[in-house]
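thread from #wetlab-drylab

HS: before we spend reagent money on co-crystallization trials with zinc ion, can we at least see a predicted complex? here's what I'd submit
DV: go for it
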Amino acid sequence: MTTHSANQPPAAGPGARSSRPAPSAHEATLITVAPTGAESEKPAVPALPVTLDELVTTAKECQAAGAAVIHVHIRDDRARPTLDLARLTDTVVALREGTDLIVQLSTGGAVTDGFDSRLAVLDAVPDACSLTCGTVNFGDEVFSNPWPFIRDLYQRTKELGVVPEFELFDLGHVATLHRLLADLGAPHGGHVHCDLVMGVPGGMPGDAATLVQAVSALPEGATWSATGIGRSTLPVMFAALSAGGHLRVGVEDKVSFARGRPVTGTAELVERPAALAALAQRPPMSPDQARALLGVTPRH
Ligand code: KMH
Ligand code: ZN
């Protein structure tokens, strides 16, 4: 599988000439990697990065494979999900030192996390954060995001200069996104970028028809990524690429590479969309191109 250097978008597929100009951000594909999540356990999924060293190593490999953004959940010393602020702050620093990736902290955490600790995640001042636009059944659990919490979280992103990515698990979440923007205005950075999280048991299904419907309801000018959980990963990936969207992949969303074949490392989950994006002549964008697209302040 072809890899490419961090700041250089890869060539546009087999036979591409090195003199071809780099694609502009809207011709290229933003790949976000979500390597950890809060749901899987290390013994069941050995590829899961649970220490800071493992996370930084994974992040470097994923950047080399074509990722531009990393969506981050962290674990404690016993590999359990945590929102410990000191750890989150150290994680942001280490990922910035070790990679060029845009560091997007999860404010979703685990379904057991309280609103105050989810809000406090922003005090680690990442480049970006996830911001889920509504409550959703989450398997046997509930991922709770009531309107006052969404509002407070969004307000705090604006105060701290953190770029939110609006996570949409269901069509009702799109309506809430419209309400949020109407009430509180544009996000920090000025650009609205969404992530359709599809195929969660309790959320919208991960298929092409639902993706097209959700995309048609997004605010004017918004860009979007999509991720299909579990078995919906590949249908959602192909549908998103064909509809002009961007992609999110990672062990948070899928623990097997193919039927009966567990993931051996997160980078292989990035290599596949990077290759498909190159075939679609929308190669992976660099982290700097992603910063320009999303309105994230350049590092240098
Ligand atoms: N772990 C899920 C309950 C996010 O990161 O913002 C929520 C989640 C969404 O993963
Ligand atoms: Zn997450």
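DV: Confidence is low (pLDDT under 50) at residues 1-19.
HS: ok that's useful, forwarding to the group
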